[in-house]
Automatic annotation (TrEMBL):
This is Response regulator. Pfam families: GerE, Response_reg. The modification 4-aspartylphosphate is found at residue 55. The lineage of its organism: Bacteria, Bacillati, Actinomycetota, Actinomycetes, Streptosporangiales. Residues 5-120 form the Response regulatory domain.
Amino acid sequence: MTAPRVVIADDQALVRTGFGMILTAAGIDVVAEVEDGARAVEAVRALRPDVVLMDIQMPGLDGLTATRRVLAADDPPRVIMLTTFDLDRYVYAALTAGASGFLLKDVSPEHLAAAVRLVETGDALLAPSITRRLVERFATRPDGATLHRDLTPLTTRELEVLRLLARGRTNAELAAHLHLSEATVKTHVARILSKLDLRDRAQAIIVAYETGLITPGNP
């Protein structure tokens, strides 16, 4: 299996160097370490990495704006946001832009390497329960970014799957609740993402709240 190729964007040299050493030791190819969003965008265009570790707050072009530019390109990499604050409101905005999750900067070396490999395969980094907490905290705020998706392309069964997925159910829990196989559940989830033009489950959860399919606090 080819090692994931990673760009690290953070304005703190110690963070860039430390993360670079951790990933390299784990057999992951760090192709660039940059100190701001503008250089991150340039590095992605030039080097075509698989994953970008993107700090949210950087001088000049901030990480959120840089993420939007990176993900707007054809065949974009996966983006993991780096933050010092759990449930930072900017993380929610990054998820609506298509980021695959976030990591706190005090993440363990093992978790850092595992996170990069996870999102490189196409999975969302955030556990559904964490994504749900983010959404319930920020989705109803007027200053929040929105995805504006129409749910009419979904079948009745797909709406049911999306509703349960947005409540934090894993594939195994969905399968048990709906009396389906996990393979069938995965097919339903894949069709939901495809029909709504979403990158991963994190965005699907956001859409479920922002379209009113479910509302914060209701079972």
